[in-house]
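Tutorial, part two.
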Amino acid sequence: MLICLFAIGCASVNKNEKLQREAIEGARGDKTISIDYASAFSIDYREGYKIVTVGTPWQGSNDSIRYVLRHQQTPRNEEIAAMGQEIIIPVDKIVCNSTSQIVLLEALGAIDKLKGFPQTQYIYSPDIVNRVKGGHIKEVGVEAKMNIESILEIDPDMVMAFNTGREDRQINKLKELGVPVVINADYMEKSMLGRAEWLKFMSVFLDKEEEATAYFEQVEAHYDSLVNLVSGIDKVDVFSGSLYGGSWYMPGGRNYGALILSSAGGHYLWSDNDNTGWLNVAFEVVYEKARSADIWIGVGSFESLDALRDADSRYAEFKAFRDKRVYSYVNRVNDLGANDYFESGIIRPDLILADHIKMLHPELMPGYELYYYKQLE
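Running the prediction step on this input gives:
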């Protein structure tokens, strides 16, 4: 009997040692992941730990945020643990506050980890919508004011949130209560591939680096092949944006919305602008420069030329309007108004690029049908 108990005890010790060894090797070895385009976060693999740093958590921030990821079986290293907020991985219960985050879970085959989301009516993914309807995902208030009590009832391993730099009392309160809050700053990226690479950011919390790498490499390869397709082609004049509150909003010349126009073989009329954000200009300035442009891409949520003209009759004076070469990202919108462009589009820059090439140079993609965008009629 004693021999039997001793054998069981040894097996248990050996199993624990094996789990610790696998955790250490997994954190620093075959599950490592490279970051090639994203600039707002980094990952550092240490013995048994993953250290994730969000260098620019929001616009104007000079302070980075660091997360120290450790497997439960990994012996605690006090020196490393003190480097940032410690989170036990892989996380199992997650609350997100943006559809650009939940699509990362879907791409990694981990939508079962999503347990809470604010304003679930804004979710486009049919699979995730079905999980909401089935009671697997809890409504946790509204985006700007998540319900603390609802989140505490879920008892999540991690709340992933974005922050624009404003004081967020809900996020601060969650931190005070000991809930791990992770800031996702994908919107800070200057390129679409950089933003898509935040798939890798999510993957380290789930131990799914291999899945993230495989997914991203396919997207990257398709994106690169499309860039090669338009290499050397004559560029066509294109402009973007529309009026809001009396001013015309459009991407700055270094905004990813402008850069993809160039990548697709377009001459964005404001490409000489150095702004990475958004421009706010008068209608007259836009009309003077863009009235004879060939194509107009990105007119907000307008779904027809009539609706565009009804909003402001001056829109009809642009050549692109008269030629019916106006496009909007409203091709994938569900009955509740959720728009897939803002959801899966985050991790499918290749499809967004394909749409842009089709709009700018339809002769290069004769059999392709627009995925996110729609030509207004």
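The chain has a mean pLDDT of 90. In part three we will examine how such features are distributed along the chain.
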